[in-house]
Design brief:
The protein is an alpha/beta fold. The protein has two domains: 125 residues, Rossmann fold (3-Layer(aba) Sandwich), CATH 3.40.50; 54 residues, no CATH class. Helix content is 50%, strand content 15%. The protein has eight helices and six strands, in the order E-H-H-E-E-E-H-E-H-E-H-H-H-H. A six-stranded mixed β-sheet has the order 3-4-2-1-5-6, sandwiched between helices. Helix 2 packs across helix 5. The radius of gyration is 23 Å and the shape is elongated. The N and C termini lie close together (9 Å).
Length: 193
C-alpha cells in the first residue's frame, strides 16, 4: 500500500500553528519513517515549496519526501500523483476537502489528517510498549501452605470472566459488521493502516 501524505496539512492539524518549523517537519518525517518500517507500507509525503522551481524528491529513512517546487502546489502534485498511480493501492492522508473529493472520484480512499496521525502515534508507541517487560507479582495473603490451592489460584488468575454487561449480544454485533459498500471499503483500508 502507498500512503500519500499531504505533509503541511497533517502538520497544521497536529501542531496547530500557521508556520511549521524545519525541526517539526524533520520530526514528522522521522515518525513517518518509523511507521513505514513497522507496517511495511510505502510512504510518499508531499510538502509545498522547496529548493527548486520544479518538484524535488528525496529518500529519507526509506520514505519519499517530495517538495512540490515554486511553480506547483503540493495539492497539484498530489492530484497528478493520484492520477498516475490510480490503479495501485493508495490511501490519501489529508483533511483538504478538494483533495479528498478528487481522490474519491478516482476511487482512492482517503483518511482525515488527525485520524491518521492518531493511528501513526499508536503504532509507534505500541512498538515501544511491546518491548517493555511486564511482570506480575503474586502476593500470598495467608501463612497456610497449600501447593494445590496456590496452583489453582494462579491458573484462575489467567482467565478473566466477562460480566453480563460486558457481553455484546450477537444481533448487535451483526448490525455493527454490516455497512454500506463504501463504509466497508473504508474500514478495510483503515484496518490496513
Amino acid at each position: 500500500m502507498i500512503i500519500l501524505v499531504d505533509g503541511y496539512n497533517v502538520l497544521k492539524q497536529v501542531v496547530h500553528a500557521q508556520e511549521i518549523t524545519d525541526k517539526q517537519r524533520a520530526q514528522f518525517i522521522k515518525q513517518l519513517a518509523k511507521y513505514s518500517k513497522k507496517k511495511g507500507h510505502a510512504v510518499v509525503v508531499v510538502f509545498d515549496g522547496g529548493p527548486d522551481a520544479w518538484p524535488v524528491t528525496e529518500k529519507i529513512q526509506g520514505i519519499a519526501v517530495v517538495y512540490s517546487g515554486v511553480r506547483e502546489s503540493a495539492d497539484d502534485y498530489i492530484k497528478r500523483y493520484m492520477q498516475q498511480h490510480k490503479t495501485q493501492d493508495i490511501v490519501l492522508v489529508s483533511s483538504d476537502h478538494e483533495l479528498c473529493l478528487y481522490a474519491s472520484q478516482l476511487s482512492i480512499a482517503s483518511i482525515d489528517s488527525f485520524a491518521f496521525y492518531k493511528i501513526l502515534r499508536q503504532t509507534i508507541q505500541s512498538k515501544a510498549t511491546q518491548q517493555e517487560v511486564r511482570t506480575t507479582k503474586i502476593v500470598k495473603t495467608t501463612e497456610t501452605v497449600s501447593p494445590e490451592l496456590d496452583a489453582l489460584m494462579e491458573e484462575a488468575a489467567k482467565h478473566a470472566l466477562l460480566k453480563k454487561e460486558d457481553r455484546i449480544d450477537e444481533e448487535q454485533a451483526d448490525r455493527d459488521k454490516k455497512g454500506s459498500k463504501r463504509e466497508r471499503k473504508l474500514k478495510q483500508t483503515i484496518n490496513k493502516l
